[in-house]
Amino acid sequence: MRPLTSNRPAGFTLVELMVAIAIMGTLLAVGIPNMTSWVLSNKARGASEFYAEGLATARREAITRNAASRFVLSPNANGQLDWQVDVCFPVPGTPCSADSGSWSTVATAADNDPNAATPYKSMFRAANALPNADALVPTLQPQGSTGVYFTALGWVDTTDAQRLTRLTLTPAAHLRDGIATVALAIPLGGVVAKCNPDVAAPDSRACP
Fold it and tell me: Where, by residue number, does the polypeptide cross the bilayer (predicted)?
C-alpha cells in the first residue's frame, strides 16, 4: 500500500505569513509601550537610592577620615542632578567651609591629607541613567541650595545657611499611578530619612 502524500508545498502560504506578521505587530504595539513604561518606572524608583547613596557616602567619609566633607549637586543635560563628594582637612585658622579650606577634587587630593599613600580624591556620580526631568522632577529645599556640608562627627554643618535640607523627586502625571513622590530629608544628625511629602503625620511615611 502506497503512503499518503500531500501535494502542498513546504513552507508558509502568503495568507499565513500575513497573519503571523499581523499578530507580531499587535504584540509589539502592546508590548513596547508597556516595556518602555516599566523601564522608566524602575529608573524613577532608583533615583532616591542614587542620591541617598551620595549623602551617605559624604557622611561616612567625614567620620572615617576625621575630616569635613560635602555633598555637592550640579545640573546636567537631562535636567537631573549629578553629585560629587569632596573632603577637606581643616588647619588652625583655616576652617573647611563653602568659602575656605582646601577641598579635594576628582583629580587632586586635599591639602594636609594624612593618608599620603592613598589620598582621597573626590567621588563623582553622573545622573545620566535617571529619567529626564520631564518624567521625574528634582526639587531642592531651600531653593537655590547646591548641597550640604558634614563635620568630622557626621553632623550637618549649620554654618552653611543655604544648606540642603530636602531633595524631593516628583514623578510626572503619567507615572504617578505606579510611583509615589519621594523626598530625602537631611536632619542635623546627618542620617538621611526617606519620606513621602504628600502624606502627613502620624503616618510613618511623612517627612520630619
Answer: 12-32
- The continuous run of DSSP H or E covering 33 comes out as helix 14-65
Cα three-residue angle 100-103-105, rounded to 5 degrees = 145
Residue type at 62 in one-letter notation: A
Is-contact 25 113, C-beta < 8 A?
Answer: no
Residue whose cell numbers read 546636567: 76
Q: Which residue's C-alpha cell is 552653611?
A: 160
First to last CA, the chain: 89
The whole-angstrom separation of Cα 196 and Cα 208 is 10
For residue range 122-166, what is the model confidence (pLDDT) as tens digits?
A: 999 999 988 888 888 999 999 999 999 999 999 999 999 899 999
Query: What is the Cα–Cα distance from 80 to 117, expressed in whole angstroms?
Result: 35
Strand 193-195 versus strand 136-141 pairing type: unpaired
What is the rounded CA–CA span in Å between residue 55 and residue 60? 9
Contact status, residue 162 vs residue 144, Cβ threshold 8 Å: yes
- Nearest CA to 134 out of 57, 80, 202, 191 is that of 80
pTM for this predicted structure: 0.78
pLDDT tens string 84-126: 999 999 988 888 988 899 999 999 999 999 988 899 999 999 9
If 0-12 CB within 10 Å is exposed, 13-18 middle and 19+ buried, where does residue 146 land? middle
Rounded Cα distance between 38 and 60, Å, is: 33
